[in-house]
Specification:
single chain; 323 residues; mainly alpha; MetI-like fold; 2 domains; two-stranded antiparallel ribbon; 76% helix; 2% strand; globular; transmembrane helix; transport; BPD_transp_1_N
């Protein structure tokens, strides 16, 4: 087990090194921050001084070495746009994104699993066919279209829910939350539903496929032959085994939700990390863009590492294979 753990941690460190190099190099070619930050009539000398103060006059390998050293110390640099440490900006925006992802994950699991079970137990029923048809619409509709339609219906036409912003929030130390106020909860609904829709349809279709596969297995037929209750067979035997890949996909999707909440946060002007990244792109704020990519990469690496380790704990065959 120790060998598996050390192997996964070594792979995670290597991946993060590659991600840091990619994030550093890629954003050096999206624009010139000096041109964005300089005043309109700035002289060549002023631009050269600004470039020197930002460290952009150094060779690329020197810049990367300094960037890597600062990153290992937890220093992600200073935002060109806000003139504040990037870690402070991420700490301010992270709670909003995590709460949005939490709501989207809860909605997708609470609705996706029961709907998947329904479609698996009665695949030819009218309800199952309707759910599958709607899932096709949900999985193929772009996120920004879903968000705009929800705003048009529930915010503009009906006036039930706010169309933008986070509502009233409460500060709990460095963490700010809207889950403890009525306006915060109302503000979470539309972006949460928008973000959850794709994951909901994915989980529903995955549960349906896994349940159908498990229900056709030999041990389920043996359980039916023994006369065990249908409820026990469906929910204690079949569903528990069908949920294993669902747990894996859900864990990986949490990372995807955080990474790709950019569109949802932009549509609803949600003050999270996705909106911060979009603003950084428009201003060529390289430290913020690089830090965002590093954070997303670290998140995926951590999730994959935890999933691999849990699989090794659950399945002894993986431990034996790695020995």
């Amino acid at each position: 087990m120790l060998k598996v753990l050390l192997s996964r941690l070594g792979q995670a460190a290597l991946v993060m090194l590659v991600v840091s190099a990619v994030s550093f190099v890629m954003f050096r070619y999206v624009g010139d921050p000096v041109a964005t930050m300089s005043r309109e009539n700035a002289s060549v000398e002023e631009k050269a001084e600004l470039r020197r103060s930002l460290g952009l006059d150094q060779p690329l390998i020197v810049q990367y070495g300094r960037f890597l050293g600062r990153t290992l110390r937890g220093d992600l640099g200073i935002s060109y746009r806000n003139q504040r440490p990037v870690t402070e900006l991420i700490a301010e925006r992270l709670p909003a994104t995590l709460e949005l992802v939490l709501v989207a994950t809860i909605l997708s699991l609470a609705l996706g699993i029961p709907l998947g079970v329904l479609c698996a137990l009665k695949p030819d029923g009218a309800a199952a066919r309707l759910v599958q048809a709607l899932s096709l619409v949900g999985i193929s509709t772009p996120t920004f279209v879903t968000g705009i339609v929800l705003i048009l219906v529930f915010a503009v036409s009906l006036g039930w829910l706010p169309s933008f912003g986070r509502g009233q929030v409460i500060d709990l130390g460095w963490w700010s939350t809207g889950l403890l106020t009525a306006s915060g909860l109302k503000s979470l609904l539309l972006p949460g539903i928008t973000l959850a829709l794709y994951q909901l349809t994915l989980i529903m279709r995955l549960v349906r496929a896994e349940m159908i596969d498990v229900l056709s297995s030999d041990y389920i037929r043996f359980a039916k032959a023994r006369g065990l209750p249908k409820r026990y067979i469906h929910f204690r035997l079949a569903l528990r085994n069908a949920l294993m890949p669902v747990i894996t996909v859900t864990g990986l999707q949490i990372g995807s939700l955080i990474a790709f909440a950019i569109v949802t946060e932009t549509v609803f002007q949600w003050p999270g990390m996705g909106l911060l990244f979009i603003q950084a792109v428009s201003f060529v704020d390289i430290p913020v863009m690089a830090a965002y990519l590093l954070f997303v990469g670290l998140l995926f690496v951590l999730i994959n590492t935890v999933v691999d380790i849990l699989y090794a704990v659950v399945d002894p065959r993986l431990r034996a294979r790695s020995a």
